[in-house]
Specification:
alpha/beta; Rossmann fold; two-stranded antiparallel sheet; 8 helices; globular
C-alpha cells in the first residue's frame, strides 16, 4: 500500500545526526515538510541541506530542548514556517551512565530533563494548535489524523545496569505516551512510542574510540559501549547484528504514516529481537 505525507508538517528533535537525521530524511522522502531541531546548529544545517538536496522542504532551529522556554519557541517557529503541525517526533537525547551509587543528582535529573520533561513541554506547547485545529476540522466534518512519536528504549522496558537515570527516563516516556494517547484521541491524534535496541550511532561507539563522548552544556560526557559488550550483544541478538539509523527510522515512519491511523498508545520495539 503506497502512502504520501504530502502537505504534512513534521517536527523532529535531535535531527542533526544519527537516528534523528535518518527520520528527517525518511519523512521528507515521503513528502513531509520537515522542521529540524538539534543542539548543534552545524549538524542541523547539514541535515537541512540533505533534505533540500533530495527535493524536500526543510527549516531548522538549533537550541536546547531542555531549556524551559525553548519548547514554546520551537513550536512557534514551525507554525511560522509551515503554518501547522501534523507530526511530532521527540527524538533528542543522550546517555549519561553510571551505577546508582556513583550517579549524581545532576546526572539523574539531566536524563529526566532531556528524555521526559522536554517532550512533555513540546507537546504541551503544541496542544493549543492541535486542539483548535482538530475542533475546526471536526466541525467541518473532516477527520485529519496527526501523529506523535516518542522515542524510548529497551532500557526503559527492560532496565539496564548502569543506566538508572536513562532507564527511568525512557520508562517515563512510555507513561507519557499512553496518557497522551487517551487525552488526544478525541482530537484524532495517534500517540505512540518506538523503543530502540542498539542502533549504530555515536551513543554505542566503542569506548576505546577517541570520539567516545558528547559535548552537552559545556561538559564532555563519555558515551559508548565496551567493545566486548558490543560483541556479546550481537551474538545474543536474534538478528545477529546492530541496527542501522535507517532501519530505526523505518519504524518511526510507520507511526507517522496513515498505516497507523488506528494504532495509538502503543510501544513498538525496534531491536532486532534483542532484550536486555
Amino acid at each position: 500500500m503506497a502512502f504520501t505525507l504530502d502537505g504534512k508538517a513534521a517536527l523532529v528533535t535531535g535531527a542533526g545526526r544519527g537516528i534523528g537525521r535518518a527520520i528527517a530524511l525518511r519523512l521528507a522522502e515521503a513528502g513531509a515538510a520537515v522542521f529540524i531541531n538539534d543542539l548543534d546548529d552545524a549538524e542541523a544545517s547539514e541535515t537541512e541541506s540533505l533534505v533540500s538536496s533530495c527535493g524536500g522542504k526543510a527549516e531548522r532551529l538549533a537550541g536546547d530542548v531542555t531549556a524551559p522556554e525553548f519548547p514554546q519557541r520551537l513550536v512557534d517557529a514551525i507554525l511560522a514556517a509551515f503554518g501547522g503541525i501534523d507530526i511530532i517526533v521527540n527524538n533528542a537525547g543522550y546517555t549519561w551512565d553510571n551505577v546508582i551509587q556513583k550517579t549524581t543528582d545532576e546526572q539523574f535529573q539531566a536524563m529526566l530533563d532531556v528524555h521526559v520533561v522536554a517532550p512533555f513541554r513540546i507537546l504541551r506547547a503544541a496542544s493549543a494548535y492541535i486542539r483548535e485545529a482538530a475542533k475546526r476540522e471536526i466541525a467541518e466534518g473532516r477527520r485529519v489524523m496527526r501523529k506523535v512519536v516518542n522515542i524510548t528504549s529497551i532500557a526503559g522496558t527492560d532496565g539496564n545496569p548502569g543506566q538508572c537515570g536513562y532507564s527511568s527516563a525512557k520508562a517515563g516516556v512510555i507513561g507519557l505516551t499512553k496518557t497522551l494517547a487517551k487525552e488526544w484521541g478525541r482530537y484524532n491524534v495517534n500517540v505512540n512510542a518506538v523503543g530502540f535496541g542498539l542502533i549504530e550511532t555515536r551513543l554505542i561507539q566503542p569506548l576505546t574510540s577517541a570520539e567516545a563522548g558528547v559535548e552537552i552544556k559545556g561538559r564532555r560526557i563519555r558515551v559508548g559501549v565496551q567493545p566486548q559488550l558490543l560483541e556479546a550483544v550481537k551474538s545474543s541478538c536474534p538478528l545477529g547484528r546492530l541496527g542501522t539509523p535507517e532501519e530505526a527510522a523505518g519504524a518511526v515512519l510507520f507511526f507517522c504514516s496513515p498505516l497507523s491511523d488506528y494504532v495509538t498508545g502503543e510501544t513498538l520495539i525496534c531491536s532486532g529481537g534483542l532484550h536486555f
